[in-house]
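This part of the workshop introduces the protein records we will be handling. The structure tokens are whole numbers drawn from a learned vocabulary of backbone shapes. The record below serves as our worked example for the rest of this section.

===
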Amino acid sequence: MASQPKTALVAGSTGLVGSCLLNRLLADPRYEKVIALARKPLAIIHPKLDVLAVTLDSLPQMAPTLKADDWFCALGTTIKLAGTQEAFRRVDYDYPLALGRQAAASGAKQFLIVSAIGASPASSIFYSRVKGEAERDLSSLSLPKLNLFRPSLLLGDRAEHRSGERLWGILMKGLNPLLVGSLGKYKSIRGDAVAAAMIQAANAPSELGVHVYEGKRLADLGNV
């Protein structure tokens, strides 16, 4: 029996992974509607697309009105772009948690979020600690299925300029073949491959609960 078409929600739809997610979801016949949360108008016009204007400050208030089957969260920034650790935490912790709570309350089938390699609430690195705290607290919500994606350095064209990441990307392309065994999880990966992996995971049969995708598992899933 064919599955019923679903509704997807994408938070962070103008970022590297989020924009790839949006394009892939709009082309995917398994989804009849795609809700994109965006701070500014999108260049894409599509009959399946419903764009909701949202600012980072208005997101918590808007969250209770949102409903979808599969919630994709690709929100993320850097401390340099955010300006302060507090502002960074708002984007990478507060807003994903607000969305996760509403996803759980609204009866979502699953929540899928881009985290980062090394995420741990016990990490001494602020960035990794915040990512880990977000994972931990999302895991405590009543979500039927939580999918955590932990890429290393993301490759691809970003809307905002991140010169440091661009230089690291060039370096990592050369280092990737040398990262084998337990070091394989640190290989850089294309943002579009992460987006592909997220959609694959959302539509693959799997047990309920928390699922972590990193390293080879993430790369293999995104190799479509």
About this structure: Strands lie at 6-11, 31-38, 49-53, 70-73, 110-114, 145-150, 154-155, 189-190, 209-214. Residues 6-160+189-222 form a domain with the Rossmann fold fold (CATH 3.40.50.720).
